[in-house]
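Example 3.2
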Amino acid sequence: MQGALNLFQATMLRWRTRHPYNATHVARVPHELDAAHLRSTLASALEETGLTGYSLDAARGRFRWRGGPAHVELDIGAPAPDVREALRAAIERSLARTFPPDGAYVPFAFEAIPDAGGFWLLVVYDHVVAGGDSAAALLGAIAARYAGGRALPRLERHPARFRRLFARHPIQTVRAAAGLPRFALRARRARRPPGLEVRDASNAFLMASLDAGVVERIAQAAKRWGVSRNDLLMGALIRAVAGLKPPAAARARRYEVAVASVVNIRSDCAGPAGRTFGQFLSSFRASHPDPAGASLEEVVRTVHAENRDLRSRRRYLRSLIALALSGLAWRSVSDERRDSLFAKHYPVWAGLTTLAVPGLWGAISPDAGAMPPDYRRGVSTGPLAPIVVAATFTGTSLELGVSFRPAAVPAADVRAVVDRYVASLEELP
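Structure, written as tokens:
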């Protein structure tokens, strides 16, 4: 089965010519670790779903899943006295993993970390091949197979070309294109992120966890303010990263602080994650002129005002059109300017990717059972933002995986951002 990369995948392909661009998911499997059985399970799961024989034609932006025997890359870690630190270090290592730039290769790698009465299973994948929803569904299916579940269904493995999406929504597409000048002018009001001049894109990784009580308060506050959970998380992130630099000077041309959020558009262009494997993403950007001087509710309402018609009017098409134009700009700028191209013209201080795992865990296999309460996730920062927060709702907690470029933002500053972020959510009434 072969297909062509969609706009977001093509953009990621450009990003990973600069440095690794991966995503990592980790879930706890409540069964004793048997390395041979795990390796056999991984092979069976990948072969049955059709996720083998991958090859990429980067120059033409095309890929192919040929099928056939699985080649499983699996590391077995040693038992660790501090499992949490072992997980953090494993995710950090995985974000630095280099997948081949072209040709036939295996776009997945696995690691098992023993734990009392079970083990943690980590999958790192080339982010070009899949979004977080597909990865979570695949990890749930693998856990089901390991526990003796039935054979898995073969998945559809081609991403939808977004040109069909534009063709189905011509009016929204015209509106999106017409809004690009305003979109560009708004970006010129945003302060550029710290570390723009730094070329070292190595990632470090931190984790934080919020319990069920905080998750419930997030849901209640979102309902009370008439916003989504993602709006609230995005507004809190704007306030948290605003402390990375002093406030803008009076009458400064750039005075807003902006962050970006991933938008999953699978429902508009593909089947559900239990049937179609791939990546179906767009993004949107929100900013506030004075996040440090405004309340969380004020910032969140500003985010919501920009986001409320994102799906109903398909404003995410604007970001996709901008990505298409960025591909043309990428070809025209010098190699050394490519590192800062996105950060200069789409300035955001952090990125947010939100995922609710419970609805995805059993999407491929009905034998997956209850969603495990322990789930972690990390995503490479890319050339766009120096910090990326992977916010994962597990059903019992909110797990935060924070990747960052220490050459651009010192670890102590990122820890302060995470502390401010967590505190703002824990203090919700």
